[in-house]
């Protein structure tokens, strides 16, 4: 065994052979299993690190490929992964790789027993490759595009040429981290994540590994595809879910970028206001939110809060990261009325979108250790907000509002007073 003699030339030859054969055939030819922890990342593709090094050894003059059980040869940090990194290749290390969600069957993808939390967990724990220390934008761009389509009620499944054309345009405009115009990569990966459904083809779905093989599979099979039905339905009908997922995708993948142009292109720019969609002429009752949805929303907010507490967004200014989902929950439970029990009267006017003029406020400022959570947030009219912020009685009012926030939060979850009757 002469691992030290392997150069980039042999590694690239092994990668080329993997692309030519396809991942599964390549692994079978050399007797390897799929990598459980270390993956080589090269030109947007993922490759099994140990198998690539083992095959590369066979391209050395007078040498044979290494078998998986060759003495002293492993795919771990001290052998294959170390060699690849020393040669300048990127190797992703995922200690949870063995726990990645398995590919779902069509029946499972359309089954109601896939819980709200399980589906969202799959989306908010995406496995993506990195380039120059940054997470790839392939999957987030695809999901934001699909979320916008669901919000507008557009067809869930599209023919592959339509999907490919739309995503190529978005990748060209917003793939600022070197993403190629290859929608096949993220679609195949999202399918194996259990988030994307593919139909109208025969045989197994290609992996997201390699290059030519992935493209060839989509070209030959032309599948119809789109979000798995339960995911689509959540994005379509649950504003809390949309906002929580939007929060997570933007805060995870776009921390140092301005996502506004992308959100505009996919039709999610208006969602940023995080207000209930009442619309002209719709009754205040439409602000009602069920205790179950409020509870689910709070769980999503709490998971994000644990990740973001104290973190600052660096897109334009160093401001605290705030949750659109939490804001939506507070506005919904307020039913369009100021939550200060001593409010002397909020403005009778409404906004252009027919919303009451309310402002969501953190009773304890985030900069002072307050939580970005409905239990410490209230909806206030401009007058009460001004008193709470700079009035002489603000400290007394804050004590009242902190109590009210807790009571309204308990009522919203169905664990306190009647959640449909505001106390103000």
UniProtKB/TrEMBL annotation:
Residues 325-386 form the HNH nuclease domain. InterPro entries: DNA-SBD_ScoMcrA (IPR058813), HNH (IPR002711), HNH_nuc (IPR003615), ScoMcrA_N (IPR058807). SMART domains: HNHc (SM00507). Pfam families: DNA-SBD_ScoMcrA, HNH, ScoMcrA_N. This is HNH nuclease domain-containing protein.
């Amino acid at each position: 065994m002469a691992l030290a003699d392997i150069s980039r030339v042999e590694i690239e030859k092994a990668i080329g052979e993997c692309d030519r054969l396809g991942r599964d055939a390549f692994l079978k030819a050399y007797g390897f299993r799929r990598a459980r922890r270390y993956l080589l990342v090269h030109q947007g593709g993922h490759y099994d690190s140990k198998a690539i090094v083992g095959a590369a050894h066979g391209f050395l003059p007078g040498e044979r490929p290494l078998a998986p059980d060759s003495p002293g040869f492993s795919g771990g940090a001290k052998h294959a992964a170390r060699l690849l990194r020393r040669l300048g290749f990127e190797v992703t290390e995922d200690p949870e790789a063995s726990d990645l969600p398995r590919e779902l069957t069509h029946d499972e993808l359309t089954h109601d027993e896939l819980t709200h939390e399980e589906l969202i967990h799959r989306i908010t724990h995406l496995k993506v490759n990195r380039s120059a220390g940054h997470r790839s934008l392939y999957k987030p761009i695809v999901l934001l595009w699909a979320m916008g389509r669901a919000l507008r009620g557009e067809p869930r499944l599209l023919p592959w040429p339509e999907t490919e054309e739309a995503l190529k345009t978005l990748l060209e405009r917003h793939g600022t981290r070197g993403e190629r115009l290859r929608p096949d990569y993220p679609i195949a990966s999202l399918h194996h994540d259990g988030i994307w459904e593919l139909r109208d083809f025969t045989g197994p779905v290609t992996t997201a590994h390699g290059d030519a093989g992935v493209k060839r599979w989509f070209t030959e099979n032309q599948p119809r595809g789109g979000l798995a039905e339960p995911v689509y339905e959540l994005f379509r009908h649950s504003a809390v879910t949309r906002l929580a997922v939007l929060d997570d995708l933007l805060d995870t993948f776009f921390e140092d970028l301005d996502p506004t142009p992308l959100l505009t292109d996919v039709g999610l720019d208006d969602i940023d206001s995080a207000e209930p969609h009442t619309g002209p002429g719709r009754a205040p009752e439409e602000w009602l939110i069920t205790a179950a949805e409020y509870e689910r929303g709070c769980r999503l907010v709490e998971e994000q809060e644990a990740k973001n507490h104290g973190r600052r967004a660096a897109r334009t200014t160093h401001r605290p990261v705030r949750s659109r989902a939490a804001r939506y929950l507070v506005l919904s439970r307020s039913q369009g009325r100021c939550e200060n029990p001593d409010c002397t009267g909020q403005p009778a006017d409404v906004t252009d979108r027919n919303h009451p003029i309310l402002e969501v406020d953190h009773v304890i400022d985030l900069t002072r250790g307050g939580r970005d959570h409905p239990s410490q947030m209230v909806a206030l009219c401009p007058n009460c907000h001004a008193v709470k912020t700079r009035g002489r009685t603000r400290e007394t009012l804050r004590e009242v509002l902190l109590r009210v926030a807790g009571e309204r939060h308990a009522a919203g979850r169905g664990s306190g007073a009647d959640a449909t009757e505001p106390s103000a």
